[in-house]
Description:
Layout (H helix, E strand, L loop, with lengths): L2 E4 L5 H10 L5 E6 L2 H13 L3 E6 L5 H15 L4 E4 L14 H27 L5 E5 L12 H21 L5 E6 L23 H11 L7 E3 L2
Parallel strand pairs: 1-2, 1-4, 2-3, 4-5, 5-6, 6-7
Helix pairs in contact: 1-6, 3-4, 4-5
Amino acid sequence: MRTYFITGASRGIGRATALALAEPGATLALAGRTTAALEELALEVQELGAQALVVPVDLRDLEGLEAAAQSALEVLGGLDVLINNGGIFNVRSLEHTDPAFFEDMLRVNLTAPLALTRTCLGALRASSSAVVVNVLSIAAETGFPANSAYSASKYGLRGLSDVWRAELGELEIQVRAVYPQGTDTSIFDDVPGDWDRSSMDSVEDVAKLIVRATMPDAPDELRMY
């Protein structure tokens, strides 16, 4: 069975993905900021027959992320699938998108996946079924008002996915990009705006798409729309 590393696992899409992947024989490294939520999830994963490793980490802390990932890999003894799911979302008009806000969004949504994937590269290279799954967004293909920072980060991750696919293919590491649209998660709790969350996709449906992306015969890009 396979070994997975999932960021943003403490809630939302990451949590649903972990539960969807949990099956007897699987091992999941659950990375996120909220240790208590990760520990609760680990118990649920174990009840489903999988093994779980809690990896507390803040994606803003790149050095801490790399160190935590390296320690986790030593415990896991290998890695088959890396799922770069963790991220942040907020909206600001161009007028109010100051450099600090912009750089924070890019650090979490773009630089952290690069740092983590680079750290995991050796373990992935040793796997016979290695896959990197980058969770993007409809905002990686379509511009929306007040989304300068978020769209830039997701367009950037889309670009990294294309580059890695070309670069890592010769190492037999598959790179997949998943494009959710609006998904009903707690990420919207503190975001200003009138969001019709009843019309959004469920985290369970997005998780199914991510699980599909981990399969050897999956297409390079998978969309909810």
